[in-house]
Amino acid sequence: MAKAKVQYVCSQCGSTQMKWMGKCPDCGEWNTLEAVTIRPAEPGRSTLAANGLTTATPVTLASVGASPVERLPLRMVELNRVLGGGIVPGAGILVGGDPGIGKSTLLLQMAADVARHVGTVLYVSAEESAHQIARRAQRLGIQEERLYILAEIVVEQILEQILHLRPVLVIVDSIQAIYTEGGASAAGTVSQVRDSAALLLRVAKQHNIPLFLVGHVTKEGTLAGPRVLEHMVDTVLQLEGERFHAYRLLRSVKNRFGSTNEVGIFEMGDRGMEEVHNPSELFLAERLPNAAGSAIAVSMEGTRPLLVEIQALSSHTPFSQPRRTGNGIDLNRLLLLAAVLSKRVGLNLADQDIFVNVVGGMRINEPAADLAIAVAIASSYRNCPVCADLALVGEIGLSGELRSVGQLPRRLHEAAKLGFARVLVPRSALNRKGADGLPAQIEIVGVRTLRDALEIALVQ
Ligand code: TYD
Ligand code: MG
After folding, report:
1. Is 178 annotated as a binding residue?
2. Which of the listed residues 247, 268, 270, 275 should we mutate to test ligand 1's pocket, taking the one with most ligand atoms within 8 A of CB?
3. pLDDT reading at 46 higher than 60
4. Is 328 among the annotated ligand-binding positions?
C-alpha cells in the first residue's frame, strides 16, 4: 500500500504547500502552515473518504435558503443603481472606458464615499503618483481620513498591503499597469493581466473585500487584455460618453448581482462627476420646440425610460452618392429607415444628404427609436416641424409598418411626467396585454404605418 503523505495548509489563506515554511508564500502570514496527513485511498474507497472529507451531495433547490447579501451602500444613487443596489462584498468589478473619460475621477469619488460612511478604503494607483491623486482629490474636495492611496505596480506588494490594511474596498487603477513578479512577460501583456487579476481576485474573494479593477479599452472600444478577464470578474461596467460632451453613461454590461443594461448618468463638471437624476429634462432643455427636423424618442436604458431629442438634417446634394451620417445611432439602421422612407412613404431622398444626431452625446441602440428618427428625417425633408407636445415610440418594419416595443407603460409614464400631451405608438402595442397600466394624463394615439404617423406628427 502507498504511504501517507503530509502537506501543509495555510490556516489564513487556505493555500497548500509541499513543505513547511515559516511564512506562507501566498498570504505572507507567519506561522500559519499546519501539517495535514493525506492518506492514499484503500482499494475500493475514494481518496476523499479516506481523508475524512465529505463529498458534496445534490440538494433540492427549495431546501437551500438564499441568504441575503449585505451590500456596501453608496450615497451615489446612480452608481448604486448600476451595481444593482450597492457593492457586494468579495465581488470583482471591472470598469472599462476610453482614456480621459473619467474612470479615475469616478472611482476616487466612490472611494471617498465609502471611506466616509463605511470604513477603510485602499486606492492603488499604478498609473499616477500619489501626488497626482492628491491633487485630484483636492479638486474634488475629498479629504477622508480612512482613504489610503498606494502608488505601486507589483501585485505581490499590493496584496501584502491589502492583507495588512484589511480595507472594506480596494480599487486598482489600472490592471494593465501592474505586474506579478511570478510572470515572465512585461506589464500589460495578456498573461500578466490575467495572472495579476487572478491573484487579486483570489484574495478579494477569500477575505470578502470588493475589488474594482480599471481596464483600458482598445481603439475599437472593447476592453483591452484577455477576454477571460471579463469571465473572471462578477461585474463589468463600461463608462461611455463623447469626450466633448459633459455627459457620461455608466453601463453594466455584465452583472452577477443585478440586472444588466442598467445605466447611471453623470455629468463631468469642475468638481468631478455629478449625478444626473432627471436626465430626460436635461436632454430636452435646449430643444427648440418648433424647429423642423427634431423629434422626441422615448428610449429605455435598462429599466429606466429616457426621453431624447433626435435631430435630422436633410439637405440637397449635387453629387450622385448622397451622404448618410448618424451620430449616436447605428448607421445601418439609418440606411434602412431612409430606404423605407423612400420606398414606402415616397420621399425622394436619393439626392439628399442625411445627417442624424442624438442630442447630448447619447447612443441609442434600440429599435424603439426608429419612429422618431424617421419622423425627424421626414420633418427636415419637408421643412415642416413635428408637433411640439408629441413624443414617438415604435419600431419600423421593412414594409413601413409600426411594430410594437417592450415596456410601453414605463415609457409613457415618463413622457407624461415631462409634460408631453400626446404620444404616437404602434397600434398593435395597444391590443396586447403589456398595454395595461398606461397613464391617463397623456393622449395615446395608435398608428399602423409610418405614413399614417407622418400625417399626425407633422404640423401641416
Ligand atoms: P480621469 O478620471 O483621469 O479619466 P480616466 O481615468 O478615465 O483616464 O479624467 C480625466 C478628465 O476629466 C480630464 O480631461 C479632466 C477631467 N476632469 C474634469 O473635468 N473635472 C474634474 O473635476 C476632474 C477631476 C477631471
Ligand atoms: Mg485614469
Report:
1. no
2. 268
3. no
4. no
